[in-house]
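Schema walkthrough. Field components (list of strings):
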Amino acid sequence: MRAASIVLRKDLRVLWRSPLLLGALLAYPIVIALLVGLIAGYASSKPRVAFVDEAHLPPVVAVAGHRFHIQTVIDDVAGQVTLVRLSPKEAARELANGKVVATITVPPGFLGNLQTMASSPSLVLRTGSGGLAPRVTQQMQSLVYQLNQKLQAGYIAANLQFVRLILHGGSGKFLGRHFTLLGLDGTQQELAKLPPSKRVAVIEHFVQVARVGLAQTGLALRATANPITLSQPKRHGRTWVLSAQVQAYGIAVTVTFLALLLAAGAAAAEKDEGTIGRLRRGLVSFGQLVWAKSALAAVVGLALGAAIAIVFGVVVEIGGVTGGEPWARLPLLFLGVALVGGVVGAVGVLLGALAREARTASLLAVLVVLPVVFLGIVPRGAVAAAYWISLFLPFAHAVRWFGAALYDTDPWRTIAVETLWLVGIGLAFGLLARQAMRRLAA
Amino acid sequence: MTAPLVRALQVARSYGEIEALAPTDLELVGGEIVALVGPNGAGKSTLLAIAAGALEPTQGTVETEARVGWVPQRPAHYGRLSARENLELFARLEGDRDPAGSAAKLLERFALPAERRPSAELSVGNRQRLNVALSLLGDPRVLLLDEPTASLDPGQRRRVWDVVNELRDEGGAICFATQNVEEVGEHADRVLVLQNGNVVFAGPSSGYAAVAEDVFG
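Field assembly_structure (string):
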């Protein structure tokens, strides 16, 4: 290994003397990681949905004695989508050309049905055929659920007004007619004025029971309307940007890019410089060359991965994010980063040896690294084939390794499994790279 | 008879269907200089690279009894490293106990710039001299040189031949590829003429003139 370490030190020195290349190698993966993050962020941003008001809803709608400001309701319930008011024609056109992912229409007669409750009014949802359609449907179902909850609260409040009239008496209005009620309180007072008798006692007992029973009406109505409620305490966790997942993916993407490009370029450079002939004359074996280039990728990958983890941790600490940065786990993370750098480096050496020329090797590495990363990002349920292919590439294992090292309570099992995978992948690609180096030297 | 320091037996090299070198024998004994002559693509560089262990033959074997130094046709060193750093690096790989000392000696012997200027920025002549200097690391007794003086001025050529002759006088063996007829006459004891991967003449340099015209047209 002495020869491999001499070549490694030479490569580090050569890299250090190429500030432009070093800068590009360090900046490029970070830029790519940010772009991937932005794309992922966009995927989770609010889809645009057309809101078509054929019922000509007034700004304020009174339902069950409650006044609803339509725009406020829309703003309240549309946290997951951006509702855009459009005419029916515009909405249909924008749905057809994909500018909106769905249209939700308030049909004529909606308000009348809602106010009289003669029949349940309907909102009409039309979705496009894109991948966001199921998500938008779920969000619209959630929107209708939340609207119903608000209306239920209004109806319950209106019903409780009548219950209060029955309990305490007073004036009210029903179907446009005004009326005055004595109420149970008044009835009890009137009964108290009557001479005691068995019949009066029976009525007094009924009034007492009815008062107790009706006093519980509000709770009973709310419980019937919402047998199960979902309570959501105020969040104190990390934002998406500072999540453990983003940290694991960020480091994995940057290290994969860097290690692959660097190792591919360094391997092919031996051919470009003409030095592979000198080295192979008993000075450095092909296996040692593969080790040296993989180690180069591991060392530089470790430096970049450590820098990212430390910067991330500082941001987390400055931001006072709940849980903080798991500083004690960083050495474990660094171990994983070095391992991943080396394994990806072996893949890079293979590419460099196949390309036989540094520029072609860099281009090939860029072309290969994108599918390697994206195959690892595709969820198992989305494309099963992608998942199976990614099993035999280092990226997905790297993400799981880093995620476990940083945030799993008991990471050892995951780390052991992923280490075995990575070592196996590294050995397989290393052997292939050694064979390819033979071809490179020819 | 002196035992050969390098013996290549029936070595050949093919690239797919193309035969770069037909099965060829080459023996180098101490105290002699052998010239490999032939037009471009004749197989001279291939034979030298195989004998040096820098290229694997598709058939045949190479036996070496001494340390071999190799000067490839195209300078082979790291352009981002200085001449000194290249010499020290390869000295370390050769297992030299004093890489800095060996590098300093060769820098002086070949009048190479000692500063930290990357070797890629050196003149063509300096790069070629560095190429030759690298081949002398590890004190080889056999030197295989592929057109070592092609880009050197007369003074520098003389310096290279001084090194070669010195090694020959010390009992070393030298084989060099060239297209320079004068160099063959001046320095070679024996000549191997190659054409299209085949040896078309092998004998004393005095007999080379008769075939030279046929080979080069």
